[in-house]
Design brief:
This protein is mainly alpha-helical. The protein contains 11 helices and 3 strands, in the order ααββαααααααααβ. A hairpin with a 2-residue loop joins strand 1 and strand 2.
Length: 275
């Protein structure tokens, strides 16, 4: 009789704990994805702005890009301004990946993974612009124009960027399987850890950045399509899900970072000009 009562209590405690986890970790991947996306975007665009300032090229800083004065700066200077942005994002991503590999079981693990993914992904995504046909379209298109690369080379760089970005998202999904709630099946983990954060998070970032050119808004929303590779990576992953309330529960620090990131985007959305 005593053992039966104890067993019922254990089952009830586990069930209550599982229900509580469902209401707490559900939002954290989306909140952290938005925050990480904005942090890397600020690093990327601020690097453009600081380089333009150093080269005395007038600019206006927005959360989605830096508009350079058309009549200032040589082609090489404009190329340098363009390239330094994705390079700084790449450096930030690699640093975050280094700390992510050493943060096993830490509440910061998921945030570091997103920062690493978006940092490196910004570089790969900008490689895709190498074949773009203008000075104002994409960071690496300017560098390609300055270096007078043949179109064959530019298409090769763009294809490499596309394949690398697909592989990066696949790897992110593979890692997210391990960070999924313990005992969760792959379908539910894919929806909670990949689909909802990608769709909802990208939409939040895009709305927070408005007003912005329609083409850029559409392009930002289209970025979410690369998370299809992340979903495939999670479904194919052999990692054992080990996420717990410690790593998946939304904290005050998460909410505060999210709020600060959104405020920073809205501040930049009006345009910060240097003449």
């Amino acid at each position: 009789m005593g053992e039966g009562v104890i067993g019922d209590q254990v089952v009830r405690v586990v069930s209550e704990s599982h229900a509580r986890e469902q209401t707490t970790w559900f939002f954290r991947p989306t909140i952290l994805l938005v925050t990480a996306y904005i942090i890397i975007s600020v690093i990327h665009e601020s690097a453009h702005a600081l380089t333009a300032f150093a080269l005395d090229v007038p600019f206006t800083l927005f959360p989605y890009g830096v508009n350079l004065a058309r009549d200032r700066g040589t082609l090489m200077e404009r190329a340098a301004i363009a390239v330094v942005g994705p390079l700084c994002a790449l450096l930030a991503g690699l640093i975050c990946w280094f700390f992510y590999r050493r943060a096993r079981g830490s509440p910061s693990e998921l945030m570091l993974l997103y920062l690493a993914m978006f940092g490196v992904g910004t570089f790969f995504g900008n490689l895709m612009s190498a074949a773009s046909g203008g000075d104002l379209v994409g960071d690496f298109s300017r560098a390609a124009l300055a270096l007078r690369l043949p179109m064959s080379a530019r298409y090769a760089v763009s294809l490499a960027g596309f394949l690398l970005l697909c592989g990066l998202n696949f790897m992110a999904g593979w890692e997210l399987r391990r960070l999924s709630p313990a005992g969760s099946n792959k379908l539910r983990a894919m929806i909670v850890m990949v689909v909802l954060p990608a769709v909802t998070g990208t939409s939040i970032v895009t709305l927070a950045s408005l007003p912005m050119p329609p083409a850029l808004a559409f392009g930002r929303l289209a970025e979410a399509l690369f998370w299809v590779c992340g979903a495939v990576g999670l479904l194919m992953s052999r990692r054992t899900p080990s996420g717990s309330s410690q790593t998946l529960q939304l904290s005050w620090a998460d909410a505060a970072a999210f709020a600060v990131a959104l405020i920073a985007v809205r501040f930049m959305a009006v345009g910060i000009a240097f003449q």
